[in-house]
Amino acid sequence: MLLWALEEMMADWTCVIAGSATRVADALAFVSANTFDVAILDASLQDGSIEPVVAVLTARGCPFVIASGTNPSERNSHFFGPHAVQKPYTELALRTAIEQAVFPARPASAISVIPFA
Fold first, then answer.
1. Which of 92, 103, 47, 94 has its CA nearest to residue 68?
2. Which among 108, 99, 70, 64 has a CA at the least distance from the CA of 87?
3. CA 48, CA 34: separation in Å to the nearest integer?
4. Which of 13, 19, 41, 97 sits most deeply, having the most CB atoms within 10 A of its CB?
5. 3-class secondary structure, 110
6. End-to-end alpha-carbon separation of the chain, Å?
7. In this predicted model, what pLDDT tens digit does every residue of 9-35 receive, in sequence order?
8. Hey, how many other C-beta atoms are within 10 angstroms of the C-beta on 51?
9. What is the distance between the alpha carbons of residues 73 and 24, in angstroms, rounded to a whole number?
């Protein structure tokens, strides 16, 4: 899914978009300097794997959802974590993954998100 479409979907759910990035370095800088409720990550950004960002998020205890076209059988479960959706995904699948990632903190309609795609 294109970044703008993901951001539009999040806005339709009344989520606050904290920021976005298309490069790993920008994503690392953002997650290191900001707070947010959940990150939505694509497995690959313009300049490589999102894995370093996942490491920072995991260390900080920040929930995240991986939205990826990577074949599920090729996924590294440590990297993808428990909350992943396969592209192309439905709004329901993404919303469910977000709710599971942040549960029981808040319903999906009251969370701020940072999409990286």
1. 94
2. 70
3. 22
4. 41
5. helix
6. 8
7. 888 888 888 888 989 999 999 999 998
8. 15
9. 24
Would you list the DSSP string of 46-58? TTEESHHHHHHHH
Handedness of CA 79, 82, 85, 86 (dihedral sign): positive
Which residue is associated with the tokens 């992943």? Answer: 84
Measured CA angle at 26 (ends 46, 50), to 5 deg? 55
Tokens of 108: 């999906």
Residue with tokens 């009251």: 110
Backbone angles phi, psi at 115, to 5 degrees: -90, 135
Regions in the chain scoring below 50 on pLDDT:
none
Q: What are the angstrom distances between the C-alpha of 115 and each of 7, 24, 80?
A: 7, 12, 15
